[in-house]
Amino acid sequence: MNGFSLLEVLIASLIMVIGIIGLIPAFNAGMKSASRAKMWTEVAVLGQKKIEEIKAGIQKEGHGKEGPYSWEVTEEDYSVSGLPKGVLRRYNVVVRWQDGTRIREEQFVYIKRVSE
Predict the structure, then answer these.
(1) Is 3 left (phi over 0), alpha (psi -120 to 50) or beta?
(2) Could you tell me which residues are beta bridge partners of residue 49?
(3) Which pLDDT tens digit goes with each residue over 52-85?
């Protein structure tokens, strides 16, 4: 007798199906991780974009929305011992977004010397 019996084929198929089912959670976890990495990259890019706009003098205080993200820029005096008041300004860039049922936010800070 040559070949495989029906029982051997069924057992091999069952083992293969169990193996594939075992990989599904790993695939889902990988997809979630990739999605989160994309989101954090977009948040960092938006925060850096706003800081670059501050450096270029394009952006001052304000707020807005870009895609699923909202942003807010605030400006305040910043003092350091040894420097006179009013020499430095602190810009806070806050990016917010909805992550499932939670609202998340990330803050970026830029300190700029005021031109004399």
Answers:
(1) left
(2) none
(3) 999 998 888 899 999 999 999 999 999 888 888 8
Q: Residue 78 forms beta bridges with which residues?
A: 88
- Dist CA 83 CA 93 (whole Å): 24
Domain boundaries, the chain: 6-113
Asked if residues 91 and 51 have their Cβ atoms less than 8 Å apart, the reply is yes
Q: Which of 82, 74, 71, 78 is nearest to 113 (CA)?
A: 78
Q: Indicate the residue type of 83.
A: L
Q: What's this model's pTM, rounded to 2 decimal places?
A: 0.73
d(CA 36, CA 47): 17
- Given a contact cutoff of 8 angstroms between Cβ atoms, the answer to whether 92 and 73 are in contact is yes
How many helices (DSSP H) and strands (DSSP E) are in the chain? 1, 4
In 1-116, DSSP assigns E strands to 62-66, 69-78, 88-99, 102-113
Q: How far apart are CA 98 and CA 77, in angstroms?
A: 31
SS3 51: helix
